[in-house]
Amino acid sequence: MLTYEEALAHVLAAMPPAKPVEVPVAEAAGRFLTESVSSPLALPPFDNSAMDGYAVRAADVASAGTDKPVALRLVGQVGAGQVFKGSVGVQTCVRLFTGTPLPAGADAVVMQEDTHADGDTVQVLDRARPWENVRLRGEDVKSGAVIATPGVRLGAGHLNLLAAVGTASVRVAKRPRVALVSTGSELRPPGKPLVPGQIYESNRPMLASLLAECGAEALPLPLVPDTLNRTRSALQRAFTECDAVVTTGGASVGQLDFVKAAFAELGGSQEFWKVALKPGKPFIFGSLAGKFLFGLPGNPVSAYVTFLLLVRPALLRWQGANEISLPSHPGTLAEPLVNRGDRRHFVRVRVDAEGVAHSAGTQASHMLHSLAAANGLVDVPPETTLAAGAVVRVLRCSGGL
Ligand code: AMP
Ligand code: MG
To answer: What ligand 1 atom has the least distance to the C-alpha of 254?
Structure first.
């Protein structure tokens, strides 16, 4: 049985480099950049006004105040998208608006609220220092500066910056297409009546949501009853249509656990099977023609935890991501967390706004209400009790984030 670190290292080492595809910037949210992007221009591209007001020469209004206004002659107006043709000479000013280019000759902007306009005379009621209320060319981004690097996950702010420097499309990692194969003769899709002995299948919607969160595209396939033939044909289809396959169930030692055998019949190479984790000891990792099998346990809680600890980082690495660990932060335990077993237990917790972590409820791996309530996991080492009040690292997971 592998330790978690061994299993993770193995899975990560098997991932190929990201495959770049070109996408419009407007569709790149959540994607992982595979190139470095430099700005072809400076931002702001020209000196411009930070206010609605008047472009002035700071020296002309150095002594202005409410009680001693300075009168300037208004020589023009410049609107958004325009450039003032003339220049601002001694004791003159030009009306302008936020973002409009600073006219030649001016070196400051007096905000409208500090003026009083009367025909073509503007009384300035406050002094202006040189370059006051002026946004300088290149103070945000220098021309040629690197604005985004490979492996970054593009967020809304990146999209804005890329568009602001005129980028229409970027190269990002191809999204992994991942088949979801749920095995178990007892499983029925929600929406259909159950007969005694059956349960509703609940792993595919959960895993599709976790896949979407890590940038992958889920292809849920039909439910697979526990026979070798049906499992093999389901895996065959999954490996034909997708880059990776996530199965649930049938990964244990039961007579009706066919995932390993079916995968072997297809020519798949099983890399490892068991990991010293709770929940989630049975976990198959295998490869087949450059594609990957992640065989998760059927218990939804085990499937959830092993997905987050082993599949998520793999799919992020597949996309060339810089950050592949779950986000985490310190939390204070509201109550003791006890692990009497010999495997690390990733305990489901709910962290409140103050960073206090409460157990999310009963921790058995068939307990779904505590899975729904959890927004974090705490790694409790074997045969260890973490005391109430202890400061622990909380791995954040979906649910009430
Ligand atoms: P298995 O790993 O196939 O032995 O399944 C372990 C437990 O998880 C059993 O109680 C199954 O009924 C349950 N289970 C397996 N797959 C699913 C699924 N897709 N949805 C809900 N429960 C499942
Ligand atoms: Mg089963």
So the answer is: 4
What confidence score (pLDDT) does residue 197 get? 98
Convert the pLDDT of each residue in 212-224 to its tens digit.
999 999 999 999 9
Query: How confident is the model over 11-41, as pLDDT tens digits?
Result: 999 999 999 999 999 999 999 999 999 999 9
| Domain 20-43+139-173: which CATH number of 3.60.20.10, 1.10.1740.10, 3.30.565.10, 3.90.105.10 | 3.90.105.10
Q: Is the pLDDT of residue 400 over 80?
A: no
How much is the pLDDT for 398?
Answer: 73
Query: How would you label 348-385 residue by residue, b for 16+ Cβ within 10 Å and e otherwise?
Result: bbbbeeeeebebbbebebebeebbebbbbbbbbeeeee
Pocket of ligand 1, candidates 207, 248, 294, 367: which has the most ligand atoms within 8 Å of its Cβ, to mutate?
248
> What's the CATH code, domain 4-17+174-318?
3.40.980.10
Ligand 1 environment, Cβ below 6 A: 182, 184, 186-187, 199, 201-203, 248-252, 254, 297-300
For the domain 48-133, what is the CATH superfamily, name and number? Answer: Molybdopterin biosynthesis moea protein, domain 3. (2.170.190.11)
**How many of the other CB atoms lie within 10 Å of CB of 73?**
12
DSSP-derived secondary structure letter, 135: E
Q: Which-ligand-closest: CA of 223? A: 1
